[in-house]
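To the wet lab folks,

You asked to see what we're planning to order before we commit. Fair enough. Below is the target structure as tokens, and below that is the sequence we designed to fit it. If anything looks off to you, flag it before the synthesis order goes out.
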């Protein structure tokens, strides 16, 4: 076997290069360090006179619900307020007997169920079954 190499500095190919900063990319030099530039004062904001307001009352944009829809939603809310695991089957039958006659009625019922499920997450499974 050949003898081990004598101790000493490693060959040039294995020497670590001194840590030098990476070369700068081409472009303009960075701004000098120093105090921040002065900020120009803001323009004065002038007050604007309020617009003339009509004294006419504001009319609601949505049409009021017809009496049948109001009664339907009231009945639906009453069923949802009494829902419990023990009464669930009986209340489902009452719920299915509700007379839904329009898309607005269905949307109103869905909104009631959704709001109730958010307010009572423990009973969420029963509300999702409806």
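Sequence we intend to order:
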């Amino acid at each position: 076997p050949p003898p081990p190499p004598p101790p000493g500095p490693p060959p040039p190919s294995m020497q670590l290069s001194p840590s030098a900063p990476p070369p700068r990319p081409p472009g303009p030099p960075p701004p000098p360090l120093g105090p921040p530039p002065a900020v120009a004062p803001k323009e004065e904001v002038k007050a604007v006179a309020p617009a003339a307001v009509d004294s006419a009352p504001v009319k609601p944009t949505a049409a009021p619900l017809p009496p049948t829809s109001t009664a339907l939603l009231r009945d639906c809310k009453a069923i949802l307020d009494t829902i419990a695991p023990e009464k669930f089957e009986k209340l489902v039958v009452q719920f299915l007997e509700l007379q839904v006659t329009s898309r607005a009625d269905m949307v109103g019922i869905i909104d009631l169920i959704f709001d109730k499920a958010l307010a009572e997450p423990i009973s969420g499974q029963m509300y999702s079954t409806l």
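Structural context that might help your review: Helices lie at 67-81, 88-96, 103-119, 124-129. The radius of gyration is 39 Å.

Thanks,
Computational group
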